[in-house]
Amino acid sequence: MPTDFSLQTEKAPISLKFLVVGGGIGGLAAAYALRSAGHSVLLVEKTDGNPRISQTCDAVKMYNGGTGLYIGSMITQESFLQHLGADYRFVKHGDLHSLLFKAASDIGVNFLFNTEVTSADTHSVTVSLRNGDVLKADVIVGADGYDSVIRAAISGPADDGFNPDLHQKKVWITFSLPAEVLQQDEDLHFLADQSNWVIALGDGFIFSGNLAPNGEELVVSIQYDTDRPLEEGDDKWKNQTSPLDKWGIDYSKMEPRIVKLLRQAKEYSSRVCIVRPNLDSLVCDNARAVLVGEAGKPLLPSGHHTPAMALEDAQTLGILFSKIRHPDQVPQLLTAYEEIRQPRALTIQHYEMQHQSMLACPSGPIMEQRDAILRQALAYRDWEEMDEATFKMVWGDELDICSYDAAEKVEDWWTQWGSYFDRSNERRKSIDLPTLVQVSVSS
After folding, report:
1. Alpha carbons 202 and 256: distance in angstroms, whole number
2. Which residue, 89, 149, 166, 370, is the most exposed by fewest CB within 10 angstroms?
3. DSSP H or E segment with residue 21
4. Does 179 lie in the same domain as 147?
5. What is the pTM of this model?
6. Strand order across the 17-21 sheet
């Protein structure tokens, strides 16, 4: 089980200046964790600070403490949200964003909204703004999402010569419908059951729908493979009012009730995501800038673990920097962050790509094999009755991944390296002590 959030209540004896670029879930969580550790934090966000996708967005599916099982996009750091007072079985993206924003504001994080960062210099530890201003900090935290600007300062201009139409692309569409509309439709009333989380899989798509915590609306998301050439703005979140047909969805591949539901969407949010490769590093060469959330782990938005990874990053960074004793230790701590988080990032990215490929696999032998496994699992009334072989086949990888505890990983690192870290600080103190030397100069 995840450890108690009190592991991060320690405050550092010195206060560094952190500049967090990006005000999504990853940026807000990192800002909150670093401020909790006693540091000065300025968060810069190019929008007005509201969630980047509308309130009618996909629910963030997290740990169900009642059953002890991890479901969907699980937040392994349940204590992080418990500390904030969250009811975290199903939390809408916008609600989680608002919760984190309030928590960060309440403890003194500073914000600059409607302020766009255009570039970063990791040597001078500065960022340049669209209006010409330059901001300086002790550490830059890149939390600016899937299309990160800070990423280029760490991994280089990877997009030079990048042609998005030559890479795999996926559309993510999300919307909500009032529960009362569903209750009046004999084909769709089953969706208005709070206990149901409906998933539909098909050739090139994944559908997910569940009631929001208030029970008043069904939150829907669909991920759909597309080979449609990108139009301007397609790769940015936009609120749409036109029919879903613009995305070329092949309804013939879908169950009729799902088609009926999708055709009722009048307003929705959408964007095209281009599948990006893994990053070699999450920290710049001189260890003064670091990537968190989707900026460092370009998981697709509909991934099972995207919000969980952002909160894990935040808690890791916060606990590490609660232990700093001297500014010269910044590179050591960012290197520790890299050592702790990069293996986890690669594991999750590999899992997500394989998992989504399996769920949205084309018709044929692979789909038939997948469906046979799922039918075998669904034959049991409850997973507690499931035989061990079937349980491992269906849930084994997911449960292995979800047993990860970010706070525990930091403590493991500290157990191994903390004494060295403290000794290096003691040596620095002895070197830093002022020494009076009298020099006689004679002609």
Report:
1. 12
2. 166
3. strand 17-21
4. no
5. 0.79
6. 110-112, 40-44, 17-21, 139-142, 289-291
